[in-house]
Amino acid sequence: MTHELSPRTFLQSIESMAQEAPEDGFSLREIFDRLHERAFGAALFILALPCCIPFLYGVPQIVSLPMMVLAAQMAMGRREPWLPEKFASRKIDKKGLTRTANGGRKWFGWLEKIARPRLTFLMAPVGERVIGFFLVFFCASILVPLPSTNTVPGIGVAIVAFGLMARDGILVILGSIIGTAWIATLIALVALGVRTVSG
Predict the structure, then answer these.
(1) Which pTM value belongs to this model?
(2) CA 85, 88, 93, 96 torsion-angle sign
(3) With b meaning 16 or more CB within 10 Å and e meaning fewer, what string describes 8-20?
(4) 3, 28, 102, 182: which sits with the fewest CB atoms below 10 Å from its CB?
């Protein structure tokens, strides 16, 4: 009697890829190809994962600009993600991929258990363009040169991206709230700094 293997979840696919990676890792193009994903949600989730890991340096800086490019494409209404060669050829080594996979399981394993189609109207073309617009700012804030500034917006982007994959509007809203709160915090800190210097 034969038993069919259950299909891998998205996080399981990332874990498997990290295990199979050579020491120098894979390029972003190779990562997308190996995961057989072309949706914006999947691409953004993969790139956001290393940004969520505290004290992981180097990788967030590699992926932040490609994340902005993908978010901008969403905002402009593009239906499939595309990366310029400059970004697609960037590599994440095996160590970075392993930490990304472990972090994905640790921080976002709960998403696989609760995600389901809800408030799917948010994923209509107009809704996705609005989501993309906000994601551009969330991704841009990862570039702010302050300690651990990649973690909070990375988590916001990852939750939104997982919501897009699962067509779960509740997760999209939750991630958007986290990202918006972070942007508001940065603006408040900048305003306070300006007042302190000018005062």
Answers:
(1) 0.85
(2) positive
(3) eebbebbbebbee
(4) 3
